[in-house]
Amino acid sequence: LVVSDVELPNFEPWRNKRLQILNANVESNKAALSCTSGLRRFHVNKLRELLITAWQDNKRIEAVRLVTELARLLSAPTTPSFFPVQWVLVTDILDLFGKLVYDRLFSKANEERKAAGCAALLNNFVSDDILPDTTEVARNWFCKIADIKEVVPRFYVESTLIGCLRFLDSATLSVNLLRLTKMVDSQFTIFIFSYARAYICKISMVLEPTDRGPHWKALNDWMQSSRQPVRFITLFIAPALEWIVQCVSYGATTMEDLGPLWEYCKQPGQQVSLLHPFVVAVSLNYLSNYCIEVCEIVSSHAVLVNSFLAFISVGSPRSI
């Protein structure tokens, strides 16, 4: 299993959130998941095996076809309770594919540099350190992705490979992360829209942890498009929003750092859907500094208090 992750202070790693999604959905929906999810899991695992075989046989075009088919599952209808589980299973394999391509380019770059009498690449290399043959191979990978016609599969495959821009044009990485954040917009279902944004935020935290641009874009678009019932969000969409909020708030110390987030929490139309992810996802150090302000928002409306308690009862990993 390969899970793209990053170790940062006061930041819950992705592997923990991944387990929360799997455990929460599987435990609460065992009966409903037993048949449908079994078939889908079998299909996902089969595609994973075929992908690994194609890669080992140097069938790169076939590998792209298989990973595209996997990503296509995230644009296909499924039950609300199973979508988060399916998303985790599929993105695990997308992460694997991204690592396979990146490692192959890294190996090829070092082989080319060795043949040219150059030292091996450092971990913090940039595209100027890459010699022409490897650059061309990297360009060919992105050309293959551009041939994917459907938006959602192309988004996921390009997102998992976007780190390979370091071999091609590392200076444009931040710009392209923001571009990908805009690719899957609110014309898609709330599941596709929300979890796609959570995925690009995950990738962004690995590649550019100090760049808040993609995360704010993801959050702003989500808050301006989402008008779902409270419990619906709690059960199935909240994990994605919690992850986005955590990414937005990483490194924040002042209220000004999270100004738009505070304003969203104060808006009557947004409070119920956002307050629980806010309290769950923002670091405890930050919340402890502004606990009075948080309590004022929660207690501002009786309906909000009841809804907030309902959120907590669903099973947040954080005690309040």
Blueprint of the fold:
Blueprint: H1 14-28, H2 30-56, H3 60-72, H4 83-115, H5 132-146, H6 151-161, H7 173-183, H8 190-207, H9 213-225, H10 230-249, H11 259-266, H12 271-281, H13 284-289, H14 291-298, H15 302-313
Helix pairs in contact: 1-10, 2-3, 2-4, 3-6, 4-5, 4-6, 6-8, 7-8, 7-9, 8-9, 8-10, 9-10, 10-12, 11-12, 12-15
Keywords: Endosome, Protein transport, Transport
Organism: Angiostrongylus cantonensis (Rat lungworm)
Subcellular location: Endosome
Describe this structure in words.
The protein contains 15 helices and no strands. The protein has 320 residues and is an all-alpha fold. The protein has a domain of 162 residues. α6 packs parallel to α8 and α7 runs parallel beside α9. The radius of gyration is 21 Å and the shape is globular. Belongs to the VPS35L family. This is Bestrophin homolog.
- How much helix, percentage-wise, in residues? 55-70%
Distance separating the two termini: 33 Å
Gross morphology: globular
The major sheet is characterized as:
none
Strand content: under 5%
Order of helices and strands: HHHHHHHHHHHHHHH
Write down the overall mean pLDDT.
Answer: 85
Q: Work out the number of β strands.
A: 0
Contiguous low-pLDDT stretches (5 residues minimum) are none
Judged by helices, strands and strand pairing, the structural class is mainly alpha
